[in-house]
Amino acid sequence: MKEKNKNLTAIGDKIKQIRETLGCKPKELANEINTTGTTITNWETNVSEPNASQIFIIAETFRISFDWLLGSNGNTPFKINIGNDNTTLTFNNDKVCNGVLKYFLDLGYKTEVIKTIENKYALTIKKAESI
Which helix H or strand E contains 112, and what residues bound it? Predict the structure, then answer.
Protein backbone atom coordinates (compact mmCIF):
# COMPACT_ATOMS: atom_id res chain seq x y z
CA MET A 1 0.00 0.00 0.00
CA LYS A 2 1.30 3.42 -0.96
CA GLU A 3 2.03 5.68 2.00
CA LYS A 4 0.51 9.16 2.05
CA ASN A 5 2.88 11.98 1.21
CA LYS A 6 2.59 14.38 4.14
CA ASN A 7 4.33 17.14 2.16
CA LEU A 8 1.50 17.58 -0.33
CA THR A 9 -0.58 20.72 -0.13
CA ALA A 10 -4.12 20.75 1.24
CA ILE A 11 -5.52 20.71 -2.30
CA GLY A 12 -6.96 17.25 -1.64
CA ASP A 13 -8.94 18.66 1.28
CA LYS A 14 -10.22 21.45 -0.96
CA ILE A 15 -11.31 18.98 -3.65
CA LYS A 16 -13.12 16.91 -1.02
CA GLN A 17 -14.83 20.06 0.27
CA ILE A 18 -16.01 20.90 -3.25
CA ARG A 19 -17.36 17.38 -3.74
CA GLU A 20 -19.11 17.33 -0.36
CA THR A 21 -20.59 20.79 -0.97
CA LEU A 22 -22.01 19.47 -4.24
CA GLY A 23 -23.25 16.29 -2.54
CA CYS A 24 -21.72 13.95 -5.09
CA LYS A 25 -19.54 10.84 -5.16
CA PRO A 26 -15.93 10.82 -6.37
CA LYS A 27 -16.98 9.13 -9.62
CA GLU A 28 -19.60 11.83 -10.32
CA LEU A 29 -17.09 14.61 -9.74
CA ALA A 30 -14.54 12.74 -11.89
CA ASN A 31 -17.02 12.57 -14.77
CA GLU A 32 -17.16 16.38 -14.84
CA ILE A 33 -13.40 16.76 -15.24
CA ASN A 34 -12.59 13.69 -17.36
CA THR A 35 -10.75 11.60 -14.80
CA THR A 36 -11.60 8.59 -12.62
CA GLY A 37 -13.22 8.22 -9.23
CA THR A 38 -10.04 6.53 -8.01
CA THR A 39 -8.02 9.58 -9.02
CA ILE A 40 -10.39 11.86 -7.09
CA THR A 41 -10.11 9.60 -4.03
CA ASN A 42 -6.31 9.62 -4.30
CA TRP A 43 -6.33 13.43 -4.42
CA GLU A 44 -8.70 13.67 -1.46
CA THR A 45 -6.53 11.33 0.64
CA ASN A 46 -3.30 13.05 -0.46
CA VAL A 47 -1.92 9.90 -2.06
CA SER A 48 -1.39 12.02 -5.18
CA GLU A 49 -2.31 15.49 -6.34
CA PRO A 50 -3.64 16.98 -9.56
CA ASN A 51 -1.16 18.40 -12.04
CA ALA A 52 -1.35 22.02 -13.20
CA SER A 53 -3.60 21.16 -16.12
CA GLN A 54 -6.03 19.28 -13.87
CA ILE A 55 -6.06 22.14 -11.35
CA PHE A 56 -6.94 24.51 -14.18
CA ILE A 57 -9.79 22.20 -15.34
CA ILE A 58 -11.20 21.96 -11.79
CA ALA A 59 -11.04 25.74 -11.31
CA GLU A 60 -12.62 26.51 -14.68
CA THR A 61 -15.29 23.79 -14.57
CA PHE A 62 -16.57 24.76 -11.14
CA ARG A 63 -15.61 28.47 -11.35
CA ILE A 64 -13.40 28.06 -8.30
CA SER A 65 -10.83 30.62 -7.25
CA PHE A 66 -7.28 29.39 -7.89
CA ASP A 67 -6.24 31.07 -4.62
CA TRP A 68 -8.83 29.13 -2.65
CA LEU A 69 -8.09 25.86 -4.40
CA LEU A 70 -4.37 26.20 -3.76
CA GLY A 71 -4.68 26.96 -0.06
CA SER A 72 -6.39 30.28 0.73
CA ASN A 73 -9.11 30.03 3.37
CA GLY A 74 -11.69 32.40 1.90
CA ASN A 75 -15.38 32.13 2.67
CA THR A 76 -16.45 30.39 -0.50
CA PRO A 77 -14.73 28.19 -3.04
CA PHE A 78 -16.93 29.38 -5.87
CA LYS A 79 -15.84 32.43 -7.86
CA ILE A 80 -19.00 33.51 -9.62
CA ASN A 81 -19.25 37.18 -10.44
CA ILE A 82 -22.85 37.86 -11.33
CA GLY A 83 -23.11 41.35 -12.75
CA ASN A 84 -26.05 42.45 -14.84
CA ASP A 85 -25.69 39.34 -16.97
CA ASN A 86 -26.50 35.75 -16.13
CA THR A 87 -23.80 33.12 -15.77
CA THR A 88 -24.29 29.64 -17.20
CA LEU A 89 -22.35 26.57 -16.11
CA THR A 90 -22.60 23.24 -17.93
CA PHE A 91 -22.30 19.84 -16.24
CA ASN A 92 -22.31 16.24 -17.46
CA ASN A 93 -24.00 14.91 -14.35
CA ASP A 94 -27.36 15.98 -12.93
CA LYS A 95 -26.31 15.29 -9.32
CA VAL A 96 -23.31 17.62 -9.58
CA CYS A 97 -25.49 20.23 -11.28
CA ASN A 98 -28.06 19.92 -8.49
CA GLY A 99 -25.33 20.37 -5.86
CA VAL A 100 -24.23 23.64 -7.45
CA LEU A 101 -27.89 24.63 -7.87
CA LYS A 102 -28.56 24.11 -4.16
CA TYR A 103 -25.43 26.02 -3.20
CA PHE A 104 -26.51 29.13 -5.14
CA LEU A 105 -30.16 28.86 -4.09
CA ASP A 106 -28.99 28.87 -0.46
CA LEU A 107 -27.11 32.11 -1.22
CA GLY A 108 -30.31 33.70 -2.58
CA TYR A 109 -29.60 33.53 -6.31
CA LYS A 110 -32.26 32.70 -8.84
CA THR A 111 -31.34 29.69 -10.94
CA GLU A 112 -32.63 27.67 -13.83
CA VAL A 113 -31.56 24.25 -15.07
CA ILE A 114 -32.20 22.83 -18.53
CA LYS A 115 -31.12 19.58 -20.09
CA THR A 116 -29.32 20.27 -23.35
CA ILE A 117 -29.51 18.38 -26.64
CA GLU A 118 -26.10 16.85 -25.80
CA ASN A 119 -27.56 15.37 -22.56
CA LYS A 120 -25.69 17.87 -20.43
CA TYR A 121 -27.18 20.07 -17.75
CA ALA A 122 -26.98 23.84 -18.13
CA LEU A 123 -27.35 25.79 -14.90
CA THR A 124 -28.03 29.51 -15.30
CA ILE A 125 -27.35 31.66 -12.24
CA LYS A 126 -29.14 34.99 -12.19
CA LYS A 127 -28.34 38.03 -10.11
CA ALA A 128 -30.13 38.00 -6.77
CA GLU A 129 -32.77 40.65 -6.39
CA SER A 130 -32.70 42.98 -3.40
CA ILE A 131 -35.32 42.23 -0.79
Answer: strand 110-115
DSSP 20-49: HHHT--HHHHHHHTTS-HHHHHHHHTTSS-
Domain membership of residue 110 as a residue range: 87-126
Residue 111, beta-bridge partner list: 125
Q: Which residues contact 37 (CB under 8 A, 6 or more apart)?
A: 25, 26, 27, 29, 30
Q: Name the 3-class secondary structure at 8.
A: coil
CB distance 32 to 40 below 8 Å: no
H or E element at residue 9: none
Report pLDDT digits (tens) over 23-55. Answer: 889 999 999 899 999 999 999 998 999 998 998
> Are the beta carbons of 120 and 97 closer than 8 angstroms?
no
Structural domain total, the chain: 2
Task: Report how far residue 131's alpha carbon sits from residue 115's, in angstroms, rounded to the nearest whole number.
Answer: 30
Distance CA 35, CA 37 (A): 7
> Based on the domain organization, do 25 and 61 belong to the same domain?
yes
